[in-house]
Design brief:
The longest helix is centred in the C-terminal third of the chain and has 13 residues, at 141-153. 43% of the residues lie in helices and 14% in strands. The strands form 2 sheets. Strands 2-1-5 form a 3-stranded antiparallel sheet, with helices on both faces. A two-stranded antiparallel sheet has the order 3-4. It has helices at residues 21-30, 36-39, 45-50, 61-64, 66-75, 100-110, 121-127, 133-136, 141-153, and strands at 2-7, 14-18, 41-43, 81-83, 114-119. It is elongated. With 161 residues, the protein is of the alpha+beta class.
Length: 161
């Protein structure tokens, strides 16, 4: 599971979780002005061309889709390309790998406030008691409490501790 603590500039801190990276992307996209594929996507040039009913060997492809044609020649038609509009130029598919979780982090941070991300139950459990600038400042206990309550809700932490 992935645990997220959100401390908005205005309002109460809250914590929530995602079962996996795909669930995280769905949850981030649900509250974002950008579409899921704009927050993060992975596709080959061949897959992108199929969206336009085109193939790498289609006649005139270099004239109709010069950018995709060049990417196919330079990177290969099957090479995974990554899109993460909050981390790189919007709409750009590039061969440099971008982790889905990093793209989601960037999308959430763009909203403002402070965020904490824990990739796994163990990291979240350690964070409940670990010193943290967010949790240790005046009023920060609410964010720590939100994380603790989320861990109790998913039965990762006993509520008598």
């Amino acid at each position: 599971m992935i645990y997220v603590v959100e401390a908005p500039p205005q309002g109460e801190a809250r914590a929530w979780f995602a079962f996996d990276e795909d669930d995280l992307l769905r949850k981030v996209a649900a509250g974002d002005p950008r579409a899921e594929h704009e927050i993060w996507d992975r596709a080959s040039v061949r897959e992108l061309l199929e969206m336009f009913d085109e193939r790498p060997d289609s006649a005139g492809l270099d004239e109709r889709f010069p950018g995709l044609h060049r990417l196919g020649l330079d990177c290969g038609w099957e090479t995974p390309l990554f899109r993460a509009d909050y981390l790189q130029e919007p709409g750009l598919y590039a061969p440099q790998p971008t982790r889905l979780i990093d793209a989601c982090r960037a999308a959430l941070r763009f909203r403002g406030g402070e965020w904490r991300f824990y990739e796994g139950e163990q990291h979240a459990l350690i964070a409940v008691d670990k010193p943290d600038e967010l949790y240790d400042r005046p009023g920060g206990w609410r964010a720590r409490w939100a994380l603790r309550q989320q861990l109790i809700a998913v039965e990762a932490l006993a509520d008598d501790l």
